[in-house]
Amino acid sequence: MRRRDVVKAGALLAASAWAPVAVAAQGSDHGARIKALIGRMTLAEKLGQMTQIPGGRQKSLNSRLDAAMLDRVRKGEMGSFLHVAGAEPLRELQRVAVEESRLKIPLLFAMDVIHGYRTILPVPLALAASWDPAVAEAAARLAAEEAWAAGLHWTFTPMVDIARDPRWGRVVEGAGEDPYLGARMAEAQVQGFQGADLAKGMRLMACAKHFVGYGAAIGGRDYDSADMSTRTLNEVYLPPFHAAARAGAASFMTAFNDLGGVPMTANAPLVRGTLREDWDYQGLIVSDWNAIKELINHGVAATSAEAAALALRAGVDMDMASATYSEHLGEAVAADATLLPLVDQAVGRILAAKARLGLFDDPYGFGDSAREKAPLNRPAARYLARRSIVLLRNEGGLLPLKPGAKVALIGALADDASSTLGSWRARGQAEDGVTLRAALGNAVEYQPGVKPRGSDGSGIPAAIAAAKRADVVLLAIGEDYDFTGEARSYAEIGLPGLQIALVEALKATGKPIVAILMGGRPLALEKALTGIPAVLQTWLLGVESGPAIADVLTGKVSPGGRLPIGMPRVTGQSPIPYAHAPTGRPANPDLSIDSARYRDVDIGPLFAFGHGLGYSEVTYGDLSLSAAEIAATGALTATVAVTNTGKTAVDEVVQLYANDPVASVSRPDRELRGFVRVTLKPGETRTVRFTLAAAQFGIWQPGKWVVEPGEIKLMAGASSADIRSEASFRITGSATGDVPATSLATGVKLG
Predict the structure, then answer these.
(1) Which element (helix H / strand E) includes 343?
(2) Cα dihedral 473/479/482/484 (nearest 10)
(3) For 49, 137, 184, 247, which has the most beta carbons within 10 A of its beta carbon?
């Protein structure tokens, strides 16, 4: 935010941790060095710093590092490589840059390290299902340590796009549908990757992506346009980015999409305006792959030189992969000298990022060939995978499995090691993945039934026979790893292939079934899951997928994950966010009353945002408030007690929602404003205290956040659809500020 707004917002943030968004990228000594370097650079060398070139391909790293590429490094024609890795080859590549080039400027080495480098961990959506920022931070830290050992400086994560349409393939890469949960996961990942000091320790430069609105693509189609009100933009899609910036994210990436007709790679009002000027963000901004060149496809530039000028004016410092800056920005500068100061600004931010990483002080400070060969961290992977599993249904206490039960394991996904790794697998290898079949071993009879895709149903009879011999059936169904990720959008998100035929055949045996849902998105499975008493959402959990699922099935651990995005009944419901305005005619179960609903499907999702069960029941006490009334610059504490009434230790995610029942604009029925995952021993009671600032109930009005006077209702519960207790208070007076309400963290204390 601008400094004049800090004072104005200060009182609003009394109960929330806050630090300026501006990234402290360099000390005074580096500032002088950078200024001197820019003064010595030719335009070609400046454009070289603004250029990131693939040094290989995702599946063939370093494959383009030939003699011609090394010569370009010597000439100062590039500032960064991606799709490179390896302590020894990157050290040699860095040596060429700092010893054989004219200005000795170190290179930045980057790679998509999304959910693990060698030790592949749960996909980001699964990590978000833990509802535990410590899990997201630990996963990022482990990934950073392994990638650092391989000589890397920079990763293109966290993806903090809000995704409310599960048809979008990249839902797998984010934290789901809610901006508050997304903001907390964004902060945690930035902290995990970067540590306290990017120049010290085993760390990576994080990249908050994709700024902004990428997850709102029309119809859930990747790369498609997004269009939304400024209120939705500011209240839903921008807050996680603000949180990531405030957490110190050293870089941002612009999105592929256009927003209201303006491609984000050329969106000066949002990138240079909101991000740079309003939020005072001074980190490095990089385009997405080939996105500057694609401004021509968008129809906003006729030539590559025009595209380069548009991206530069918008505030994009580095061109990923397209070479549009290096090959065409010089032409644009020659035609318009006002671009040259913007070039210098961009180069300064790139050099500042290198300084922040410590590369000017020690260009070889990344990489350790011995650590690079270290074994996988399987204990950490297993722990994180356990935390990410969600129990959606458990009728009759079917889970955990009873000792001595004869079990049939059915479904090809149960034996698909490659799919345990999910998308964006960095240097993970399929042979590293431990499947559910491998984890259960000879304790079960296994039959694949049908593959996740395809039309071969010849294995169904053997699966039926195995089910008839069993006391209980474990049925692994869903989507393999290649169904979600970039360019993996689907118009239908039911079970692909012949899996539905397998499900119906197994249901006909009458044997109790535990459905184990694998994949990178919530699927629309109301019909398929009808009559199935137990359902586990296990996502794509990484190299320890099988052991983690087995731990939950057998009761070694009680599942504690919760859905970070609701699960639709049918595809046609999507998107169906829980934080929905009431409308003039709220959805009514009585079809004789005209209301905001589909007539051919029940109201609401099959499983709601925040839903998840454990192996014990948890009761909630009354929600009490520290005050019945607070000022618009004040704060209050909401307290609720939770008790494990069962005989098994359980993790409960206590969720706090808010509603502004009468405001200047229609407000959602409920919005997440706090949560904590707490372990409860049998019979144990814990007290949860949430401390909130009035600023967290702010409403976006043109150009500012406004805290209005009036009643606020708080609701504590086990999910967005399972509210256990409520209380209300009033805000007196009004206040304004510049901080997104959902980017602010609620204080949590356990007693």
Answers:
(1) helix 340-356
(2) -140
(3) 49
Q: Which helix (H) or strand (E) holds 331?
A: helix 330-335
Active site residue 227: no
Tell me which H or E stretch contains 675.
strand 671-680
Q: Which two tokens stand for residue 190?
A: 């930035």
Residue appearing with tokens 């021993």: 681
Here the tokens at position 392 are 């959606």
User: Using CA atoms, how far apart are residues 119 and 676, in angstroms rounded to an integer?
Assistant: 27
Contact assessment for residue 318 and residue 350, using Cβ atoms and an 8 Å cutoff: yes
CB 208 within 8 A of CB 241: yes
Q: How many other CB atoms are there within 10 angstroms of residue 488's CB atom?
A: 20
- Residue-wise pLDDT tens digits, 135-178: 999 999 999 999 999 999 999 999 999 999 999 999 999 999 99
CB under 8 Å to 632, separation ≥6 — which residues? 12, 694, 707, 708, 709, 731, 732, 733, 734, 735
pLDDT in tens, 192-232: 999 999 999 999 999 999 999 999 999 999 999 999 999 99
615 Cβ neighbours under 8 A, 6+ residues apart: 391, 394, 399, 400, 555, 558, 559, 646, 648, 650
What values do phi and psi take at 405, rounded to 5?
-65, 140
Containing 9, the helix (H) or strand (E) segment is: helix 3-10
The DSSP output letter for 739 is S
CA distances from 671 to 181, 236, 610 (A): 10, 11, 11
Is residue 253 very low, low, confident or very high in pLDDT (cuts 50, 70, 90)? very high
Closest residue by Cα to residue 475 from 432, 429, 428, 436: 436
d(CA 233, CA 572): 24
**Tokens matching residue 171:** 């839902």
310 has which bridge partners?
none
- Cα 151 from Cα 61, distance rounded (Å): 13
CB-count exposure of residue 69 (10 Å: 0-12, 13-18, 19+) = middle
45: helix, strand or coil: helix
Q: What angle do CA 231, 726, 698 make, to 5 degrees?
A: 25
Q: How far apart are CA 631 and CA 433, in angstroms?
A: 54
Q: Which strands make up the sheet holding 650-659, listed edge to edge?
A: 629-631, 722-732, 710-719, 650-659, 671-680
Edge-to-edge, what's the strand order for the sheet holding 80-82? 154-155, 108-111, 80-82, 51-54, 319-320
Q: Tokens for 131, please give them.
A: 């509802």
CA separation for the pair 494, 568 (Å, rounded): 10
Bridge partners, residue 72, by sequence = none
Q: What number of other Cβ atoms are within 10 A of residue 478's Cβ?
A: 25
Q: Which residues of 684-702 are buried (b: 16+ CB within 10 A; e: fewer)?
A: eebebbbbbbbbbbbbbee
Question: How many Å is the Cα radius of gyration of the chain?
Answer: 26
- DSSP letter at 702? T
- Angstrom distance (rounded) from CA 266 to CA 235: 22
List 132, 161, 165, 288, catalytic entry: 288
Q: Which residue has the tokens 């996963």?
A: 139
pLDDT at 25: 42
Q: Is the dihedral of CA 461, 462, 468, 470 positive or negative?
A: negative
| CA dihedral sign of residues 336, 338, 344, 346 | negative
In this model, does residue 480 exceed pLDDT 80? yes
Angle between helix axes 378-388 and 133-149 (nearest 10 degrees) is 150
DSSP strands (E only) in 261-394: 262-263, 284-286, 319-320, 390-394
